Batch of 4 targets.
Target 1
Amino acid sequence: MRIPLLAIVLACFATTVFGQKPQVKVWIDTDILTGKFRKDVDDGLALIMAFQDSSLRIEGISFVQNVDYSEKVVQKLLKWYQPNAAIQTYKGANGKADFGLESDAFKALAKALDKGPLHILALGPLTNIATLISNRPDLQRNILSITYCAGRRPGMLLNPGSGKVKFSDYNFDLDPRSTEIVLNSDIPLTLAGYDCSDSLFIAKEDFEHLKKSVNEGDKWLYKQLKEWENLWRVFMGSKKGFIPFDCATFGAFHYAQEFEIIESIPAYIEVAENDTKNQVKASTKPYLLISENHDGREVSYCEFTSQEFKKRLLGAIHHPDYR
């Protein structure tokens, strides 16, 4: 459909005169499990932040891993936190074995990119996105950037809290091949995973107010955050609360000024001894690494989250001190 010239002129006039900025177009790809017993709450918090951010235009949400549950819980979050938005959701790959399959998520993302450029926020394994790149390489030109919750420095252990429990680089470990495909593309890539997030903790006092909210969603969210905080305190030995990893990934994409981000640092994949055999059943495994002292495709790498962003996160969950 052609846009009338008058409409374009009026839009430009409004932007110039009234200071309005065009919304940032983003596609969100998520493996959200918020609400499942002993599953992380990070994706849910990141989505709530995105839903309530008027400077964003969410072109679609696709699911990777546990896609049936993901769709159900995101429909709940939309009802509670963005009831008037016409945001469409799409089921994608249920695992790395689905790489290459042209799912509803693949078709919808391809259609969105056919219409024009947008950013991709990748909060889960890259199976859907790598499928898009492989099956429709012509659309890479319209992917402005990918911000991905994964990556680390060589030798870095992902062991928050007491340091006794080690995490795997979960999103990467679930589908290294798809990450390699994205890494081999020319699409601007930002890695914003553990290193970016371990300066951002959410404690019980940060969300206690949700218990008294009249909003059904807030009460549900309080229960999920309480259970997750308790798990971190008991099993992780964390005295500071829990880390909402995917929230930092969202922030590194949309509020980069509130983060420390290294530009143009080589990223590469290297096989080494497995440091999380309780999660990956093999003696060795690949790692997604960044280092100034190694050859590789240059990416941006987020390594610190400021307290200004924490205030922004708390504001999104209606903390009385940060409204």
Note: Residues 1-18 have pLDDT under 50 and may be disordered.
Target 2
Amino acid sequence: MIELTALSGKKILVNFDLIKAIESAPDTILCFQDGSRLTILETFQEIQTRYIQLKKSISEGEQKWK
């Protein structure tokens, strides 16, 4: 899960595996597999960076268990 900010300013945790697409025009909108959508304050690039960090930390965690 990654922490993002809703338009209201509230911090939310989002399960990245449930996201189908991310739109950036001009607001950043998460499109989920169930058809729901969520507009957030972070930019597309910020989300991409957090996703890469998440996957990297998961990968490193798996390597520690081997």
Note: The two ends are 23 Å apart (CA to CA).
Target 3
Amino acid sequence: MSISLPGRRQALKTIGLTAGVSLLKVPASSAATEKKPPVSFKFSLNMSTIRGQKLGFIEELRTAAKAGFSSVEIWIDTFQAYLQNGGSTAEARKIIDDLGVTVENAIGFAKWIAEDELTRKTALKQLQEEMDLLAKIGCKRIAASPMGATALPLIDLNTITERYITVLQMGRQTGIKPLVEMWGGSENLKKISHVLYVATESGHKEASVLLDAFHIFKGGSDPESLSFVGEHAIEVFHINDYPANITPAKISEPDRIYPGDGIAPLRQMLKVLKNPNKPVILSLEVFNESYYAQDALLVAKTGLAKMKAIAAGI
């Protein structure tokens, strides 16, 4: 049966109305998912920030969680002190899970890079033991710093690369990823270009660098160099700030301050580092004596608020 012209118009109106109603019935959750902006960063607390309060391993974790952090970086010596005083990896793992925090990285100082062979062998044994412990509490990474080679003479970067490959192979066996760390005050691995060379030259898919706003300034790297650090090369970035009127030669660890309270080009850095496909972990790492004199929870909350303010809209 044919439909008259007025009938056709009415049919089209009805179809249009029905379609509109269907669109209105799209689940709210779907619409919210479509509009939700990608996450470029995760916020973490490096326990250096509240280390001076001497809370102990478990209370540091609780403080971070109470402050609103879901990610943390622990210090191996504090963790080991907890174990030596009767704690266990099983207990620690349960507490970590109950708090809902992720141990993203661990700060240790094994001298894997040292020139002296005996020192290096001892350090690798130490590193193996540390990785085994960290794996039991679900830690994902460990810092591979230039400790043991901070003074002259310079070590050839190819030699450092070979030693880093050894550490990477150890990490593969334990499930812990070692991050080759830049220290601006060191003679070795003091620049972005140094650690980036070691990571890329290793040819290892797990190779990654650990950078730090303070060390970029201290070591004389140009912040623009961050643009050469590809998304596969960085997972954790230590965020902090530093005051004006102090030179790289004079600045020291206790001079670190909250993000946004100094002159570091942090927003410029974060714009380069952001990666919606794999959020970069921004970890607050400061060693400020005036913060150590304050309540640890207040310090952690203040730090998180300032980190979020710096990263807002990037």
Note: Confidence is low (pLDDT under 50) at residues 1-33.
Target 4
Amino acid sequence: MHAPPLSLYVHIPWCVRKCPYCDFNSHAAPARLPVADYLAALRADLAGELASAPGRQIQTVFIGGGTPSLFPPQAIAQLLEDLRPHLPTAAEITLEANPGTVEQARFADFRQAGVNRLSIGVQSFNPQMLRRLGRIHGRDEAVRAAEAAVAAGFSNFNLDLMFALPEQTLAQMLDDLRYAVALDPPHLSHYQLTLEPNTVFYSKPPALPDDDSAWAMQQAAGEVLAGHGYSHYEVSAWARQGRECRHNRNYWLFGDYLAIGAGAHGKLTNPVDGSVRRYRKAKVPALYMGQVRAGTPNVEERRLHRDDLVLEFMMNALRLSDGFTIPMFEQRTGLPFKAAEPGLGTALEHGWVEQHGERIRTTAQGRCFLNAVLELFLPEG
């Protein structure tokens, strides 16, 4: 069996302040970040991860958080130097960044360190919305961050935008999009705010637009972005031609990814028997660093069963506008296509998916009812 493409996810868990909607593994930064200790743990963890995938090149790297741009560029450079022998020349290397002034000043140094793609967490250009979201930047900083990315030599960058924000109107959402497209980002992530467990917003819900209003925002956004030449290649992702996020596409097409850092999740296929395992690192940074020192960085590991493989493949691949091919399903899961046929047959009957030769993808209706589509692949019992 051919192993699928391989990526690497690096998690740096600290932020200046935790946002009330955020359910990622992030922690308010201490007065002094433990940069040296955490970098040492990442590099040791990386050595173990590389040993688990001998001879395989890493096609993409995503350094997320938290706010990884709080770390000095020298630390990122050291980590990427360890990776260099395992990266092709054209590897995509993304760093998440916030629009704060301090991070902007480092963009050129991150570019020099080897990062070639930025993902900037704007979320909104509306000062009122930013306050409601607990963001610490303003509209002008968001605009300057995109301009600073271009000035630093980033020909590829993403802007993160959210919609259906607390008390947001359709007109306010459209204003956000106008600011965004005026900055001409090669990639836009545009996703709906949801209330996730273990967040401040979940325990103290703000007044959000109702479902009809949120749907109207989504439809209007699609018209605006398509009109400005962006392709809607994934449920929440829009891109100029050739600027799709390769790292995320590898997730959605059920590729493999190594994981280092507190709370990071990984997925790895055994090329000998085709088995797939998922694993996770400890979430608390101090605990993670201690477990790496002890030589036991993984706190959870599990092998995916047949039903898990079908469901998890569909949860990812059906998010893509161009879907997947039958050979890809068989290669990435190690299963015959008939394992997916019962669920896909029902989805076809409902008009939720369509098949053209060996390619299968969701229809416009199917993307509206994606959760219902995925329920067709839940294990019985």
Note: The chain has 16 helices and 17 strands.
